[in-house]
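Problem: given the chain below (437 residues), write out its structure.
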Amino acid sequence: MVILYIRAVLYMLQCKCLCLGSVAAYLQPWYAALESMRYLLPDDETRDKVTGQSWQVKLLRLSERTLEQLDVDQTKYADELTAQEEDFAGKINSVAMSLTNAQAHVDVAKVDVVAAEVAAVDKQLRAVQREALQLNTRQALLGQPLTDYSHIKMLIDMFDPFIQFWTAAASWKANYTTWMHGPLEALDGEAVEKEVTAAYKVLNKIGKVFASRNLGRMTANAENVRNQVEEFKTLVPLVQALRNPGMRARHWDQLSSELGQDLHPDKAYTLDKAVKQGLMNHLDKLTRVTDVASKEHSIEQALDKLQREWEGAELNVLAYRDTGTYIIKLEESMSQQLVDHIVMLQSMGFSPYRKPFEERLAKWDTTLNLVSEVLEQWIALQRTWMYLEPIFSSEDITQQLPLEGKRFATVDRTWRKTIDAAKRNPGVLKVNKLPAE
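Solution.
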């Protein structure tokens, strides 16, 4: 289509050139008449005349040469495309043969080898699909009819269940080994549950596809691996209990006492060892303790977050006019956060799961209430100081009120010393430790 468009443009150009020739022929008698009268055209009009007469010939020659080159290039590219299509037909046959061989595998004991083979075949299929699209694109450019490569998509669809099965089976084998015999501390309970659920769904779906195609051996393979996954599902709650992020030494001590055996998982502890210890028979006790650990962990996380926020919080200390000192600007967000956290600490203080954190809760409740009180008094004092400072900065006022002036000067020195210390060390938690004099 593109080449046809180029040809149409060139033919239109030739038509325009013929029209240009007609215009030049029409003007020629007029130019001849001017010459017979010995009229000399201005330089710019002379250039226009010569250009108009020569461009018709130039454009015609250019379009003819372009059409000739286009014919040569089209023939060349068509021959190259024919060779590529013949080579591509051989690729399709080769991939189809590989696909047939890969589909013949039924021995699950060789899952790793077969999974690698089907992955390679799938890669070849995808490459062939992309090449088919490229060939169709080139055929369209040359104005040739498009070759039907839809059978490649059919091959991909037909092979897809085999790819899914062998990939899932290989992944399951690797995961099972890691989960059962690898370090328990490396497992994530939620991730294991997601992997198990996904594997079960895939194997269940693929088993139905194989059954609909009457592929008995593959149907049995899918069912066998699916049953293994289903059997492991019963261990997922145990993994989640043992890998609960809230579990601390006190919880392991409690479990060890209740179970009558040492249960303090170390780096070498595995899920296989947990099963052999018979922990599945005590899953209810594990779940009860880990539920408590989760709730305690929520309090611990809230306290950690609170601590991070307040340890990084700073006062906004700003220069105040030309007084040579500063004032603090208390952001509304900080005030609200202070109130929210005090309320949160009070709420956690009534939680039945507060016991491990009672000392920490009390410490933060005291600290934040003290900060709130200090900031409240500070802002009140600052408001008064800002009102009196310009008054007692006047010599006339200090002469008229010498006693009051001396009192303000004493307060002013303390204020400046305190606010200077706050400027150097603006941490909010340090406001109750600033020098008082």
